[in-house]
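Late entry, evening session. Most of the bench is empty. Finally got around to the prediction I had been postponing all week. Sequence below, unchanged from the version circulated by S.P.
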Amino acid sequence: MSALPFVKMHGLGNDVVIFDARAEPLPLSPDAARRIADRRRGVGCDQVVVVEPPANGRADVFLRFYNADGGEAQACGNGTRCVAALLMGDSGAEHITMETVAGLLAGSRAADGRVTVDMGPAKTEWQEIPLARAGDTLHVDLALGPLSDPVAVNMGNPHAVFFVPDVAAVDIAALGPKLEHDPIFPERANIGIAQVTGPDHLRLRVWERGAGLTQACGSGACAAAVAAVRRGLTGRTVTLDLDGGPIEITWRESDGHVLMTGPVATAFTGSLDLDIGA
């Protein structure tokens, strides 16, 4: 196979490698995705994104996401914002509709140059997360070490958000892998730890399912904001300070949709042979 062009972008340090497969199919095996994501032998990223022709007539493109472990993900918030910025930049459009496994997502340019993506409605029923058994998603029966009583939210993928007094005091790198694979999550879960730092402000770190600890997790930020609103800890518009910087989330009351607004940047472009690192 000839060398394939790619763009490496990031949203607050959550980095993605983007391939444009609208003209020619690009079926990625889990092994190929792992090799691309490898930070020593590949390009290096948290997620690989493949842009495909849309199946839905209302969308401009279809987005396929792969985590660093090679597994396919249903959603990637920062990756979606990166693709939206890239394609709107190419076309000059102010809006774009992207199809994903999790549904249709709308992207737009914010007035200050940031990019907004409508991540769709938050799902909060136990079977929507999904959990392995019926239960209250506002108070999930799950605990490990200093973490307990999380809120479960599905933002295209499953999240468990633990509220703690001090995020810095929690070793999420040690606890995240165990909680990600807890039997209560039949599809595994992203694990967030959040600290309320103001009336509409959270500090957040996320252990991402299939990617590990990342600088920023867009869907995790959405889930944490929704969890905070459900617990009565913040208003519906929340600024979250992630390891990579701040992002703004609004959980709209009118239709339950979650809007995510933040910066994106292009790191570099290049081309590679999919046999890289084989």
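Two things to note before I forget:
The chain has two domains: 4-120+263-272, 122-259.
The two ends are 14 Å apart (CA to CA).
Will write this up properly tomorrow.
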